[in-house]
Structure prediction request, 553 residues.
Amino acid sequence: MFERPLANAALLAGSLPAVLGLRRALRDPARAQADVLRGLLAANAGAAYGRAHGLAAARTVRDFQDALPVVRHEDLAPWIARAMDGESDVLTSEPVLLFETTSGSTGAVKHIPYTASLQREFRRAVGAWLGEAALGDPGLLRGPSYWSVTPLARAPGRTKGGIPVGFASDADVLGGWVGRLLERRLAVPSAVSLSGDLETALYASLRFLLQEPGLSFASVWNPSFLTLLLERLEVHGERLLADLAAGTLRPPRALPPIAAAALTPRLRAMPARARSLRPALARRAWDEVWPALRAISCWTDASAKDAVPALSAAFPRAAIQGKGLLATEGVVTIPLPAYGGCVPALQSHFLEFRAWDGAAASGGRPLLAHELEAGREYDVLLTTGGGLWRCALGDVVRVDAVRGGVPVLEFIGRGAAASDLRGEKLSAAFVGPVLRRLREAGRWDGQFGMLAPLAGEPPSYCLFIEGRAAAGLADALDDALRANPHYDYCRRLGQLAAPSVFLARGAHETYLARCGEAGTRAGAVKPAALDGRPGWDRRFAGGFVQSPQKVPA
Prediction:
C-alpha cells in the first residue's frame, strides 16, 4: 500500500498530463472542442440514439447541431430506461458501468449513466484542477485530504438489468488510478458511506478528521456541509475526544456491522492529541484543530456565496477556492487562478451555450465556448461520453470576462423555470440575486435562505430563512420579485398572493434530508435559492413571522 506522501507525489505527477492538456485547449478552444466532438461521434454514432438521428453522417459542429435536438433529461429518460433494463448500445457503444442518481428542481429522481469514457472526462477536468492548484501551492498535497463522504441517500442497488446504482464515495466517480490515489489520501475512509444515516456518518467523519492534525486540503460541494460538521463537533465534542483518546468509534447510534468492520482497523488511539484539542474545541478555534489546512474547495457561486463568510471565519488561514460548475452529469467549468475565475472544461465534454434573457433561453443556434461575449448570460448544453446528447442542464452562467479568447464563467443559478404556479416563471438565476441584494441591504441575515411555493388559493411564495428577518422583509421581497414581469402580472391579476417569511430551525439538515429522499447524496446537494417543491412549511421547524403589510396592487 502506498504511504500517503508517495500517493500525494504520484497524484501530482499523474495530474500533469491533464494540466498540459487543458493549457493546450485554452490556447485554441475551438479546435479543442472540435476534437472532443469528433471523438464522441466516432465512438458512439453507431449506438441506437446515434442511428436514430443519423449521426454517422455528421462531420462538423453544424452537422451535429442539425442532426440532434436539444433535450432535457426527461427527453432521454426512455433511452436511459432501456439501458437500465440491460440493453446495450443505446446511448453509447460502450457499456454503462453504473447509474448515479440526482434530483431536479421538481424532485424527480434522474438516473445518469456512467461509462469508462465519462469517468475519463471527469479525470481530465479534476486532474487539471488539482494539478494547477498543487503547482500553485505544493503544500496542498503535503498531508491527507478530506473529500466529503456521505451516506447513500438510498440503499445500494441495481437496475432491472443488473447494473449498479450509486457510487460509494465522490472519489469513485473518477475511477482509474486517480480515484485509487485519492482513496489512499483520504482522511475519512469512503466506508463511512455505510454508516446508515447522516448523523452517524457525520460523527464518523469527525472522528477520523480529528486524528489527522496534518489535514492539508478539504473538498466539499456545498460550503454549508462543513458548517454542519462543525456544529456536530460542538455537540459531540467530549464524546469524540473520548473516542480519539481510546481509539474507538462509538457514535450515539451504533454503526451497522458492515461499517464497523470496515472502519475499525483505520482508527488510531491518540490520547495526547485528545487532551491538546480540548481547549481549542472549547474556544471553537477550528483552525487550531487542523493547523495545516491550506485550502477548502467548495461552491462559491450563486446561493453558496452566503455560506462562504462563515467558512472563512472558521478557517482564516485556509484559502477558499471556488469549485467551478461540477454536476453529476459532467463538468462545465474548473477554477484556474491564472484566468481569475473558472474556465470551461474544454478537454472533457462538448459544451454549447444558449443566450439567456433572465427567463428563457434563446431559440437560435447555440454558441460554442470561443463565441461567448463578456457580460452575457447563457444556459449550458452538455454532450458527454456517458450518453447525454445536447442535454440542457438547467444551469445558467455569466461571462465575467474573455481573456485570450477564453471565457471566464460564473455560475449564477439554476435557469430553468423551477417554479411556475400561474405563469410567473421564477428561476433561481433570477431569485438568487434578489435574495443576495435583500441580504446586502440588511433585510435578512443567516446562512440559509430559500424561496419556495406555498399552497393556497391563490398560491404564494414564502422565503424560508434561518437567521434574522428585518421588519418589512416580506414587502421588500414582493417588490423585488415584481421586477420579473411575469410575476408582477400574476400578482396584479390576483393569481398569486403576497409572499411571506418563515423563520426555520435546522434548515440545512431538513433540506439535506429532503434532497436525500429524492436521490441525492448529502455532500452533493446544490444550494438552492429557489425550490419548486411545495410543502416546505410542513417540513421545516419554526413558524411564519411576516406577511406584507401593504395591499397588493
